Amino acid sequence: MEKASPLKESERLTWIDAARGFAIFGIFIVNIGIFSAPYFFYGGAEDAWTEPVDQFTQTVKDIFFQASFYTLFSILFGFGFQIMKERLVLKHIDVHPLMFRRLFILICFGFIHAFFVWSGDILLSYGMFGLLLIAFLNRSDKTLLIWAFLLLGGVVFYVSKLLYEVRFYLQDYDVGAIYLAKMHYRSDDLSVILKQNANDWFYANRIFSGFLSLTTLLPLFLLGMYIARKRWLHTPSKNKRIVKIGWSVSLIVFVFLKMGPYLYGNPEWFYFIQDNVGGAASALFYLFSITLLATGKLGNKIIKPFTYVGRMSLTNYILQSVISFFLFYGVGLGWYGSVTPSVSIGIVVLIFVVQILLSKWWLSQFRFGPLEWIWRSLTYLKIQPFRTREVENK
């Protein structure tokens, strides 16, 4: 039996790496607002940020970033899951134990990140819900689509109907929780910060919220698996017509459901449709756009910087949290609650540019990011060659 091994450099789909890097950028745009202030969890952003530039920034984030990039990352998670499965099958390697081990390690990363760095972690959810993907490894393409549409469509319909019925009660926010979050995160006592962090995690991951996360993330994973099976993005120059159709359809839904609500007051009750259906459409639009860019020389130059970050997506995702921890919490600079949305965008751009440069340099010396190397070595139960020259000398 042949031993499992990671993808070789020549086997990588660079536009998928770029899409993953772009997703890390978009996720950071949204996450920094959660990291720097309590309003995402507890409401009240409209009253806290009243300057026109900040309100405009919030609108742009809501249309182009909110629920667009964790959805993109989720689709890519399913895509990568399917690619890895196919590779293992070709090598006649038992898929299930290796996939289970890989996801268990991701759960461990997520647990550490969620409770010792930031409550908004997505890795823990990805690892736990990803375990359910193992049950779909050998199911038909049709089954993947049916489950994806039934889960997402059914939950979106039910929750949106419920929100519409209670629409007149959706404007309140928790003043006490906002006050406590500000006080605790500005504390110079690490235990106080971590206690508030855990409180926020449990607040955001209550039973019903966890169910909603499962029924919105799993369909995106399945959609990513389906796209990988169809191989439309493996050779985009040969499948340009299909990719362009996907691009056009996703753009129409993106505009209609993400931008459209602002034409009639952007009602609060509509947000679940806007985020989950509109967000999935915008994610696909970004994915197809990057894939189409990869078919041309100029497009390849445009997306190239994102590939460096995408190849080290786990490391860069965690690094963003570590930097934000230092910037916003009291054990660091203590900026929590004082950085406006418009200023936070500048911080994200600056940090992300540095991440591009660091990632490019790192990958010129090493095969993987440091956390990717740990993840892969534990997954394959073998220490992977780390430095680039280690592979060249073999």
Verbal overview:
This protein is an all-alpha fold and 394 residues long. The chain is 73% helix and 0% strand. Helix 1 crosses helix 14 and helix 5 crosses helix 13 (271-293). The two termini are 21 Å apart. The model is unreliable at 1-7 (pLDDT under 50).
- Arithmetic mean of pLDDT: 92
Total DSSP helices: 18
Shape: globular
* Main sheet specs: none
Strand content: under 5%
Helix proportion of residues, in percent? Answer: over 70%
C-alpha Rg (nearest Å)? 21 Å
Low-confidence segments, ≥5 residues, pLDDT <50?
A: 1-7
Element string (H = helix, E = strand): HHHHHHHHHHHHHHHHHH
Q: What is the count of β-strands? A: 0
* Backbone structural class: mainly alpha
How far from one another are the termini?
21 Å
Note the topology:
Elements: H1 14-36, H2 39-42, H3 45-48, H4 52-64, H5 69-90, H6 95-116, H7 123-130, H8 141-165, H9 175-185, H10 190-204, H11 207-230, H12 240-259, H13 271-293, H14 297-311, H15 313-328, H16 341-365, H17 370-380, H18 388-392
Summarize the structure.
The protein is mostly helical and 394 residues long.
Features:
mainly alpha; 394 residues
